[in-house]
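Before a colleague's protein record goes any further, I have to sign it off. I want your independent view on whether this chain really folds as the tokens say. The record follows directly below this note.
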Amino acid sequence: MKRTVFVVLALIVLSICVVATADAQMKGKKITLYYVDHGTPGNPFWVVYFRGIDDAAAMLKPFGVEVKHLSSGADVKKQMDLLKQAVAANPDGLVTSMIDPKSFDPILKPLIDKGVPIMAVNVEDPRPVGQRIPYLTYYGEDTWKSGVELGDAFIRYVEQAGGKKPTFILLCNPQAGHYVWEARLQKFAETLKAKYGTKSDKIVIGEDPTKATEIVKAYLVKNPKVDVIVATNWQTHANVSLLKSMGKTPGKDVYLASFDLMPELLQDIKDGTVVATHDQQQYLQGFLPLMDLYLYLTAYGAHPFGIVGTGPIIADKSNADTVLAGTKAGYR
């Protein structure tokens, strides 16, 4: 925990120095930044993410910066409408998650044509440079490595524990067509297939926890061969109780693996009912792009180039205590 707090404090101190220096060059100028994402209020992942945005906004406010944060609740159409609202407000800068970049292209074009800086966050535009939306920097996980890294961690667990070889994976996607989830699950399945010949199937469970658990249960009843389930943080935690209610032992009869963090899930890892999860450090995804946008606007265009990688970082029994302390503190 001390190391996590030190890193966060170091980022904050550095940001204060950057903001103070830039402010000396922009005395009296008001700056409006919009942050439009597909977050869902109340979701454990997004609670931490939103804290990063709030902390950055509070730090920038004394320097004449107003941050307007809009979330779509995983609704692509709503996010398009929110982006239109942001563009119409003529902001000085914009941060957004690129969950549907082809649809976002025409919406963002007026800002791009005016030279308004854009940062991509959490979900990047996967198209090549020259075809993708011309944002300055992407902040987030390496999407194509996340599933592989989690798969490798799963294999290490099985080999070290001398556990049974997995034969069939149930892949649970909370957002149909979301390319990040598609890539994560696909790469996890491919990693286990290459090692064990494991088969897999994918279902869409949605964002409603009650309905998602009903969908998973119905699948397991019809397909008792499932011995691995991969899902979101909240659904993986729910799967622990679900399996027990069905007379199965999580971590033994059925392996569980997850993407993203929450304190309850990390406790599950400590208890041995969940193998591992991955951390993309969403607090940094909320915090850093706003700081860097301000720096770009006030320090002669200075900004990070390419990708600011915030993950994947694997959380398993070896580091669960440290990561759990970070989640309880609100930074992971």
